[in-house]
Input
Amino acid sequence: MPRTDTTSWVTFERPDVVTFHLPTLAVPGQQISGFSTSPDPTLPPTTVTIRVPPLSTWTTGLHFHANHTEYLRVVKGRALVTLGSVTKVHDNTDGDICIDKFVVHQWQRVPKDGDELVVMEWTDPADGVKEVFFRHVNSIILDVKNIKNEFKGLLPLDWWLTWQILTICPALDEYPLLVEVLGRSMPGKLLSGALLWIVAGIGWLVGLMFSYEEYTPLHVAGVRRKAD
Output
């Protein structure tokens, strides 16, 4: 599949769905289209800013991380955040939300709200894995869309898109909850993780990669090498 070189991109926008401002742009205190990402200079330089426009139903989906503690900060609007079995509404008065390793979680805009939602994400360790993951997911979606447009939608590529994204997920510490038959218990998470690695392994055998040079800037190239 032809791949777009997105290594110089700092913003990935899916109109009316979601926009990702990657660390090169989303530095603490940086002005982005009328709001300040954060006046807090203590945030790591790997922080990603995500904007969900009004009426968008975009969600992260239920997932967990094995090697990173994740943090969320609601900058604008209200977020519906699920941590384990608890779902709560959070806004910019709630402070930082800590998501420990192996905690199943997801977030999205509060469905009935008319406001834009802006959320900052970062991890501990702040090693750039989050940026590489978002770069790859958005670049893959972009390239599949370009191929669909070229062939006027005649190629059924949605299955390939899902398979390629699932292939990169475990190498970048992103584990979608694929199996809910055991709930969100540790056995259920281990089963989801094992299934994800099987799907990724089969993907690798047929030529899919855990990461791509065309999507990875030099400043996070080390993350890509570890993923491969």
